[in-house]
Design brief:
alpha/beta; Rossmann fold; four-stranded mixed beta sheet; 7 helices
């Protein structure tokens, strides 16, 4: 059995995954690396190709899918997002554990990929949908339409939380300090 040095992190938008991952990587920059995803969407102001995403056109992305270069991918609205095997390997070659922050569609794909035997899976959950909605609204960055889309998506994602034998850990982010302690413990564990 090979080492499980790829950690797949999933959970609804607004649950605090990014906060937990950024804090972990800030505290342990030599131990963990983040896989840079590919996308067909255009870069937003301030985003850097190769740092925020690998911005590619749809034809190239579809070629990567057909040639088996993608660990996972998902069609989201009119764009495609995904993780290339090469992006994961780049992190692992540096001697760091690789973190993937992906949605449930992506997790399903990773579980079908040969890389699955290198992965551990964590689902970060809000204490409730109502709390998640309050967090999304407190950001002040989303339109009402986007909040409703994220909440609808979250309800579907939350159904995954209770899938038997699917996650190595389900973490309820009710208190960021407590959640971070549990998150850090899981990320440093080997099994």
């Amino acid at each position: 059995m090979c080492a499980k040095n790829v950690i797949v992190c999933c959970g609804p938008s607004g649950v605090g995954k990014s906060s937990l991952i950024k804090r972990l990587m800030g505290e342990f920059p030599k131990e963990f690396g983040f896989s840079v995803s590919h996308t067909t969407r255009s870069a937003r102001p301030g985003e850097v190709c190769g740092k925020d995403y690998h911005f590619v056109d749809k034809a190239l992305f579809e070629t990567k899918i057909k040639s088996g270069e993608m660990v996972e991918y998902a069609h989201v609205h009119s764009n495609i997002y995904g993780t290339a095997t090469e992006s994961v390997q780049d992190v692992l070659k540096e001697g760091r554990k690789c973190i993937l922050d992906i949605d449930v569609q992506g997790v399903d794909n990773v579980k079908l990929h040969p890389m699955d035997d290198q992965c551990r899976y964590i689902f970060v959950s809000p204490p409730s949908i109502e709390e998640l909605e309050a967090r999304l609204r407190s950001r002040g960055t989303e339109t009402e339409e986007k909040i409703q889309i994220r909440l609808n998506n979250a309800k579907g994602e939350m159904e995954y939380k209770n899938k038997p034998d699917f996650w190595d850990k389900v973490l309820v982010n009710d208190d960021l300090e407590v959640a971070y302690t549990e998150f850090k413990g899981f990320m440093h564990s080997e099994a």
